[in-house]
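User: Before I run my own analysis I want an independent prediction to cross-check against. Here's the chain; please return only the structure tokens and, at the end, one sentence I can use as a sanity check.
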Amino acid sequence: MADDGRRGDEDERGPGATHHVFVVMEVLLEKLKVLNYEEEVLAKHHMRSLSRHYFVSSPYLASNPGEQFFMFTIIAAWLINEAGRPFPEPQEHDEPNATVSDVLAELRAFGVKVDFPPSKLKSGSGEYVCFVLDRLAEEALRRRGFSFRRPNYPSETTEEESVMEDDAELTLSKVEEEMIEEADEEQNVMDLEALKLRTTHTEAEPSSKPDEILESTVDAAEWNLEVERVLPQLKVTIRTDNKDWRIHVDQMHQHRDGIKTSLKEAKSYLDKLQEDIGKTLEKVSSREKYINNQLELLIQEYRGAQAKLSEAKERYQQASGGVTERTRVLAEISEELDRVKQEMEEKGSSMSDGAPVVKIKQSLTKLKQEILQMDVRIGVVEHTLLQAKLKEKSNMTRDMHATNISEPASGPFS
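Assistant: Structure tokens:
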């Protein structure tokens, strides 16, 4: 599709549109040389000089998109600075889209209309690259006060012109006269050669003069027959040389006559075709006006419908934005509801299940058994403690009786 559109544009602009970019590139190179780009740009970045068609995109020319794009950005930045607007020097690691957009923004600032997308400049070559650099070079030259003027040719005297015309111009009539003269000279040369041969023969033979007037004894009819028989052999044929200018002149005359005859025939057809095309265009224009008048109401209705459709689309976008927000809230609520349902199911299952109650009952019975065992152990310990206390009390009473008995017995002896 892109190739078809490009071919359509070339057909509209003419058959020479594809070669116009070569001319633009050559003019651009001359402008860059006037601006002294070789010392200010190439020497600074250690680059080689540009060729005549460096930025031209053609299948017959070698291309290096990366190098060409970097060269394009460097030269464009330099030209913008030369034109009086500050522009930072681009680097190899810069974003290509941002660099191209900055260059086009500066070009628009100079008042140049840009009706092509920035992606056309990313290849580093082509018609639009040459166009951008050419306009920037013009702005830089305008800033320096330089302008190309038409060449002034020196005026020459009329005498010199007449001499040059007399010496240089050869008309067809002169050429024809020279051809006729040379042909006569060739015939004269041939006659002289024949005379020389005749004289040599006469000199070789002995001279014999007739004594009386010679009279022909040959019949006239036989003479005519002999002449007719020998006449074809007497014709002289000259081989034609393709390099001879006379042949080329004859061919020029033939081609000129052929062109005139074909032009007369074609002119009538072309005039008729022009009339038919003019009539057809008039019919088409009148029919177009009629259709436009008939469809004016429908076109207005269509425009109104388009306006309503755009309004409906805007409302739809606004409503779709609200629906999206509500859908998000609904999703959050659904997640919360699922979590609550899961908790309720867990609690309900725990409440309806009898396993915990059985575990509690088993624990209670086990606890009662342990309490009974503890009561028994407590009773045994209390009994043991009571026996110990009784035993200790009996021991104490026995000791007391023993001490009481021992005191009266030891009294008289003391």
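Sanity check: Residues 1-12, 157-173, 185-193, 201-208 have pLDDT under 50 and may be disordered.
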